[in-house]
Task: structure prediction
Amino acid sequence: MYTPAITGSGVFTPDNVITNAELVSAFNAYADKMNTQNADAIAAGDVEPMQHSSEEFILKASGIENRYVMDKAGVLDPDVMHPLFRQRSDDEPGIMTEMAVDACKKALAQAGRNGDDVDLVICAASNHERAYPAIAIEIQQALGCKGFGFDMNVACSSATFGIQAAADMVRSGSVKCALVVNPEICTGHLEWRDRDCHFIFGDVATATVIERIEDATGPHFEILSTSCATDFSNNIRNNNGFLRRTRPEGLTDRRDMQFMQNGRKVFKEVLPMVSKHIADHMDAEGISNADLKRLWLHQANKTMNDFIGKKVMGREPAPGEQPNILQDYANTSSAGSIIAFSKYSDDFTDGEIGLICSFGAGYSVGSVIVKRHG
Ligand code: COA
Result:
């Protein structure tokens, strides 16, 4: 058996930013347009008028201020209200591959590795742009990696579940050096016409290099252990899928073909699940909150993270103990905790311990306890 370590991480951040002010202005223009179009039905009481969104609500309910997006114009156009991407030929890299390759190159550079050192690519994300061939295999080719690649999806927990899968393969010796990459185009499955959720998501890609600890060329994080759990729930759901055209009304513009959630229930049910999961994982490893320098949490909601941070630490986390990036990136599904890890781990010194945790649809929760060397 070998000991796995995270030897590099990287983040691809899109060029375009949408502020809450821009988002709300576009949504309100759309709502006004719909209310004008439906004026007669609204007057007759057959249709509810759409209500305006508000910057104050968004910031207070979520802590989100901005989000990075792959396309800004389509999202902010009241006649479109979703991203618009050009059709690529089958001979060009897909958009997810393009984002992934950027994040992977940064992670490989930090690890002091080249593409051909890698013998496993896992593309772990909450959506994949096509059914097959796997996006991971396209990334493998683009980077000149050896071995094999595959896609996996556990929604917001995809990254930590991917790290567990890669770490276990490194541990057993079936691979030597793995890339786990999380290209998340969350703007593609967000319903921008629904004020309850239009502020939630942004786009990003993150990557981690996981290899045998003795092969590390610089400072690295030993993976002490991983823990994953799932428990079925319909409270975060998206019904889009390959059987869409086979069903009555399957191809119509249906609300359930985009992200749907019962936010209040998610809040209430996921918090205890995650708090207990982390506590059990730390207990199993014999690690107390006093041993923990930092929590790199999933980035969905500030209040949620504040609650989990307090539960895990047994007190209000000190500044820097539980860094949030969601004010800048919004919820980026599985990539959120890895952005936090990537941006807030350089200051670790030899022997210090931290915990990465993601959670979300499924329900799913995954945690990774790491120890710095070097
Ligand atoms: N602008 C203004 N008002 C809004 C609004 C908006 N954009 N969106 C909703 N509201 C209104 C609602 O209509 C509701 O009005 P009502 O009280 O008259 O019915 C009120 O604000 C409260 O809405 P609610 O949806 O109950 O808000 P909330 O405080 O629960 O916050 C979430 C919403 C999504 C931020 C919150 O439930 C949450 O964080 N859930 C955790 C789950 C999560 O983020 N998951 C992401 C996937 S992992």
Summary: The chain has a mean pLDDT of 97. DSSP finds eleven helices and 13 strands in the chain. The first helix runs from residue 20 to 37. Residues 53-54, 57-58, 61-62, 156, 195-196, 199-200, 236, 261, 263-264, 266-267, 300-301, 304, 331, 360 surround coenzyme A (CB under 6 Å).
